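TASK: fixed-backbone design
INPUT:
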C-alpha cells in the first residue's frame, strides 16, 4: 500500500468560510506504521488543522519519544505534534482510568476546540465524548492496513512493508567498523552480514578512488563526494537490512584522508564526520595485529600504523565509545556477536556492559 509521506494540511483557513476544523489523534506510535499513517492522512484530508499527541511509553518501547515524534514531524510537516512526557501509563476501560486519560488530554490541549477525534480503537468513544468531538473511526477492523504496532515490534523486518523507510531505518542497529587500511574491515563486515542474513555497506571510497584517482590522489571535492555517496548508499542498504547493518568505514575516515592529502578538508566533510558520531549505534576498531596486505592502492605498513593512531585519537577526543577487535576473523566475529547479543538499541552502553 503506497502512502503519501510529505502531505500537509490541504485547507487554507484564510480562504475557507466558516469555522476552522481541527482533527486530533493520539498514540504511542511504537513504531509508526501504515495504519497510523492512514489515520493521520485521513485527518489531514478532512480538517484544516491536525494535532497528534504521542505518549512517552517507556514500558512499551525503547525508542525514545523524540525519535517517534520526529517521524511524524518529518513525514507530515504541517501537523502539530504534542509530546506527552508525563502521560498515564495505565490502560483499560475502567471509569477511573478513562477519567485519568481524559483529564490529561484536555490539560495538554489547553481548551482548544477539537472537531473530530481519530482512532481505530474502542477508546475513541469516551475520548471523543470528553472532547465534544465527532468519534471518527478509521479502519477499525484493520481491513485496509492489516497490521499493528505489536506485530511490527516483534518482527520489524517481516513487516517492513507496513513501515515507512524513515521509520524503518531507525529500527536497525547500525554497526560501523573503523581502522586503518588493511585491518580486515571489509572481510569482517561481509562475514557478519552473511552470518546474520542482513546487508552490509562496502567502503565506497575504495571503489571511487580506483575510478577517479590521479597520481594516487583525490581532490577535496572528490573526497566530499565519497563521504556523501557513502551515506546515500548506506541509507538504501539500511532499508534492506534485518536487525543489523554492518558498515565498512565512515566519514571520519574520509576526513582523515583529506587531512592526509591536503592538510585540510571542506567544511561539509567536517560536518559529515561530526554527524557520524551520532550516526552509528556501535563502533568497532579493527586492530593492526594482522599481516599488512601491501596492494598498489595502499601507502605502506608505516602509514597504516600512523592512521591507526589517528583514528583511535579521534574517537577518544570525540568521546565515542568503541571496541577494539583483535585476532582471527572468527575471533573478531565472536567478539562482535557477544556485544550484539547484549546490546539493546536506544539503551545505554553502560547498562549493557554491567
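OUTPUT:
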Amino acid at each position: 500500500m503506497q502512502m503519501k509521506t510529505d502531505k500537509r494540511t490541504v485547507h487554507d483557513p484564510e480562504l475557507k468560510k466558516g469555522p476552522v476544523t481541527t482533527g486530533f489523534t493520539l498514540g504511542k506510535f511504537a513504531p509508526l506504521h501504515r495504519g497510523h499513517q492512514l489515520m493521520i492522512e485521513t485527518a489531514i484530508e478532512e480538517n484544516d488543522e491536525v494535532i497528534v499527541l504521542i505518549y512517552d511509553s517507556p514500558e512499551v518501547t525503547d525508542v525514545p519519544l523524540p525519535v517517534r515524534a520526529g517521524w511524524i514531524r518529518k513525514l507530515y510537516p504541517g501537523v502539530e505534534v504534542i509530546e506527552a512526557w508525563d502521560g498515564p501509563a495505565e490502560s483499560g476501560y475502567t471509569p477511573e482510568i478513562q477519567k485519568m486519560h481524559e483529564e490529561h488530554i484536555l490539560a495538554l490541549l489547553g481548551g482548544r476546540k477539537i472537531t473530530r477525534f481519530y482512532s481505530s480503537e474502542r477508546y475513541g468513544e469516551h475520548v471523543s465524548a470528553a472532547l465534544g468531538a465527532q468519534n471518527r473511526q478509521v479502519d477499525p477492523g484493520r481491513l485496509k492496513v492489516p497490521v499493528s504496532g505489536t506485530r511490527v515490534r516483534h518482527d520489524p523486518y517481516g513487516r517492513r512493508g507496513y513501515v515507512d523507510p524513515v521509520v524503518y531505518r531507525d529500527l536497525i542497529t547500525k554497526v560501523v567498523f573503523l581502522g586503518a587500511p588493511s585491518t580486515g574491515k571489509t572481510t569482517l563486515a561481509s562475514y557478519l552480514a552473511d552470518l546474520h542474513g542482513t546487508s552490509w555497506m562496502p567502503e565506497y571510497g575504495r571503489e571511487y578512488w580506483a575510478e577517479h584517482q590521479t597520481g594516487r590522489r583525490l581532490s577535496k571535492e572528490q573526497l566530499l563526494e565519497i563521504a556523501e555517496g557513502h551515506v546515500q548508499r548506506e541509507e538504501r542498504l539500511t532499508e534492506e537490512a534485518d536487525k543489523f547493518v554492518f558498515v565498512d568505514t565512515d566519514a571520519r575516515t574520509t576526513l582523515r584522508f583529506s587531512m592526509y592529502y591536503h592538510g585540510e578538508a571542506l567544511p561539509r566533510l567536517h560536518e559529515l564526520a561530526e554527524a557520524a558520531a551520532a550516526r552509528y549505534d556501535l563502533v568497532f576498531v579493527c586492530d593492526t595485529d594482522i599481516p599488512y596486505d601491501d596492494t598498489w592502492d595502499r601507502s605502506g605498513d608505516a602509514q597504516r600504523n600512523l592512521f591507526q593512531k589517528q583514528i583511535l585519537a579521534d574517537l577518544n577526543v570525540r568521546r565515542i565509545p568503541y571496541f577494539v577487535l583483535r585476532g582471527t576473523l572468527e575471533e573478531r566475529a565472536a567478539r562482535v556477536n557477544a556485544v550484539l547479543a547484549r546490546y539493546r538499541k536506544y539503551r545505554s552502553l553502560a547498562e549493557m556492559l554491567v
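COMMENT: The first strand starts at residue 22 and ends at 27.
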